[in-house]
Amino acid sequence: MGIHYREDGREGETTRVHSCRICLKAFEKYHALGGHHTKPRKPKAEKEVQKHQCSMCHMEFDTGQGLGGHMRRH
């Protein structure tokens, strides 16, 4: 979260601006930025999940940790 200053349109006056580090949207009030951060984010498009496959029996696991536990059984 950054604090910046911008010209207010009135001669010589500036307004303090608080901006979101994620989307760079700017807010004049710090509490408005806080409210922005508490909003639920839209889910990102699902990316392809990498499968971890056992080289001995070809079972697939979602995590490397699951595969590691499985390998101890061989």
Automatic annotation (TrEMBL):
Alphabetical keyword list: Metal-binding, Nucleus, Repeat, Transcription, Transcription regulation, Zinc, Zinc-finger
Localization, UniProt: Nucleus
Transmembrane domains' residue ranges: none
Acetylation as UniProt keyword: no
One GO CC term, this protein: nucleus
Pfam families for the chain: zf-C2H2_6
Gene Ontology molecular function: any one: zinc ion binding
Domain of life: Eukaryota
Domain C2H2-type: 52-74
Record's protein name: C2H2-type domain-containing protein
Organism: Amborella trichopoda
Higher taxonomy: Eukaryota, Viridiplantae, Streptophyta, Embryophyta, Tracheophyta
